[in-house]
Amino acid sequence: MTEKPALPRDPVISRVARLLRPYRVQMTLVAVAVVTAAVLTSIVPFLVRAVFDKALFPVDGRPDLGLLTWLVLGMIAIPVVTAIIAIGQNFLTSKIGNSAMADLRSDLFAHLQKMELAFFTATKTGAIQSRLANDVGGVRTVLTDTATTILQNSVTVTAAFVSMIILSWQLTILTLIVMPLFVWIQLQVGKRRQRLARRTQESLSEMTAITEEALSVSGILLAKVFNRAESETERYREANRNQTKLQVDQAMTGRAFFAIVQTFFAITPALIYLVAGRMLGAGTVLTAGTLVAFTTLQARLQMPLLQLMRVTLDVQTSLALFRRIFEYIDLEPAIVERPGAIALKREELRGEIEFRNVWFRYPEARSLTGADTVDRFGETGVRIGAPEVQNDFGDAPNWTLHDVSLTVKPGQLAAIVGPTGAGKTTTTYLVPRFYDVTDGAILVDGHDVRDLTMGSLADSVGMVTQEPYLFHGTIRDNIAYAKPEASAAEIEKAARDANIHDAIMSFAQGYETITGERGYRLSGGEKQRIAIARVLLMDPRILILDEATSALDTETERLVQEALERATHNRTTIAIAHRLSTIQNADVIFGLEDGRLVEQGTHTELLASGGLYSRLYVEQFGSGQIEARFHDGVKFADGQTRCDRNSDDRRADVAL
Q1: Could you identify which of 148, 234, 407, 644 might form a hypothetical disulfide with 93, taking C-beta atoms 3.0 to 4.6 angstroms apart as the criterion?
Q2: 650 to each of 627, 628, 629, 655, how far by Cα in Å?
Q3: One domain for residues 290 and 370
Q4: In what side-by-side order are the strands of the sheet with 413-417?
Q5: Same domain assignment for residues 363 and 271
Q6: Residue 593: which domain range?
Q7: Is 230 a member of any domain?
Q8: Model-wide pTM > 0.85
Q9: Structural domain tally of the chain?
């Protein structure tokens, strides 16, 4: 990317200016304060000239003590007034900058919340955290101080130059003669610092990602299991060394330039005296007061001019950070709500689900920076793309679902079975629009899900995943996440229905027990039942269960299965299960293989057909007489059991 020659032409500047637009009144007050202080400060050298030429060494040779008193009082009053103005100015600039930075951080977070699931499976969590924290934090100075510093020093430098021209235009030319060279060098330094700033932030993102991965509970556990602590430490050391080198390079870039500028200003007074002597020798009128006032101005010019150069470089450096932030803000969500979308009404929703000739392949991962994106598999192991992208429908290897058509009637329990990688989880992700179909349609009560409002669809579809996510907080807060306004009685009822209330009450803190990060202080079964309680509190019409009983012991599985049967009552349910014993009483079972729907029917029908389901059943249970017991005694509000509503028999004796 080619850098633009002048900062005002960079579109990033206008976007940053828009961040400050809500604070126009406060910025106007700051501008008035800055100009007032600069004007007052520029008066001081003229008071100095008057002190020398009119009060101390007048033409008649007699000091004017009265005039001297007033001039001295003026020289004292101006710093006092400017100090008071500076206090108010600093308060306003701090409030404006920090408020604008908070707005930017909130806007970025809100925008990320709208991004589709594929974005997060393709982007490192640490990289996202880095942009929210490090990148936004890195522009703090620009938003809090830079605008004021530029204005203040620009006014000060302008006023000083005007005053110097009034005092002696000849000496002013001497001061300005090398300024064009300084400006050119500064632009070159700024371009290099921009490149270094971007590389530094990318390196910092990588360090944050390593920290988030390696120091999470899962990361620590993995490192201990495989004895990889040393290699993880070395990986962090290497990233840290790279970060240190970039920080040093960034800090040293421009140091020689500023050293040259400071040296020039240090020797300029001596040159002024030399030139002034030659001017006096040539007959030019130049009073001692004028010479003292001019050198005073020249000395005072050094600091604001250096600050102006430094802050301009800081702005150029910050542009790299702003571009990284705006990269995320400029990303358009792949899944959006259509204009005029229909809102599902809970009281009218029946819960029929239809897949109509659905083709699907995972979208390509969005490419930002190397530190942000991951390759083909995301952090959760979800496939995020494919190396080949074809536009034809057929046997292309990157299709996850191939022309799938199925219907789940209202209130049915539908099970999806198949080998790993068959597309089972993908199928369930399409219903709540975590992804959109590539071709075909998914309908809920006859409405294409793409025509429904995102909020009403989310309220209608609940999900319990294989690995439920619990945030670091109380059990009560984790359950109430689905319905923040829920009463204590509602939360307790949901917990009882999920078979977790007694376990919760066995903890010393009860519902106020802290779950720990990702719920690691709880067992797998406890986490799963809390997740079920959360869904029960939400009370969706459609429920998706993604292998919710896998990896559980027999007793815990029984408790979870009982909770799930309560959860599925009077709801349309799609259940994915590797343990076929948990879905034998399903109303309909769909068999997926290689992304294709290869069979459907009841447990008995599919066993008799000798297809995919029968093969999977034999693999799990072996050959011979298998007795599959249903979960008797799980009563619902209408007095029925799940078995009552799906079979005349409580026990199915199956001969294989």
Answers
A1: 148
A2: 11, 9, 7, 16
A3: no
A4: 461-464, 542-546, 572-576, 413-417, 588-593, 596-601
A5: no
A6: 353-655
A7: no
A8: no
A9: 2
